Amino acid sequence: MDRSSQPHAIVIVDDEPDILALLKLFTRNLAPTYDILAVSDSDRALAYVAGRVVPLLITDYMMPGMNGLELATAAKAISPTTYVIMVTAYGSVALEQRARAQLVDTFLPKADVFDRLEGVMRSVLRLAPAQE
To answer: Which residue would you say has higher pLDDT here, 71 or 4?
Structure first.
């Protein structure tokens, strides 16, 4: 099947089940017309990026095996138009600079990910503004 014939997907990658579940719920509520594919490993995420139209990839930084920086680089090699958001509890200026060098589009500390994620997603996916 042609990858463009399937509904567009948002891929979320985090090895912490509770964070993954929260990100999936948040994303599904914000973007209900997209398939939300939540996985705990980078290899499955890359398979989705290769097989689907994925306008948005949200990834954790620290994961077993391939980390979020490596995943961003590999995903952009497959799909250069995929927007990559990396979230991390290990934020630093140096890590953010490395992330940008490795094609991460937005870098969000986990401490305020839900405060900032909505605005980034609305912009990237061109979603309507929130209703007051």
So the answer is: 71
Return the amino acid letter for 7.
Answer: P
CATH of domain 3-125: 3.40.50.2300
Letter string b/e over residues 11-31, b meaning 16 or more CB atoms within 10 A of that residue's CB: bbbbeeeebbeebbebbeebb
| pLDDT confidence tier of residue 36, bands split at 50, 70 and 90 | very high
Cα 35 to Cα 11, 19, 93: the distances in Å are 8, 18, 33
**57: amino acid identity, one letter:** L
Q: Please tell me the predicted confidence (pLDDT) of residue 2.
A: 60
Supply the angle between the helices 68-78 and 42-51 in degrees, to the nearest 10: 20
Give this prediction's pTM.
0.90
- Residues 39, 13 contacting (CB under 8 angstroms): yes
Task: Take residue 88 and report the two structure tokens written for it.
Answer: 């991390």
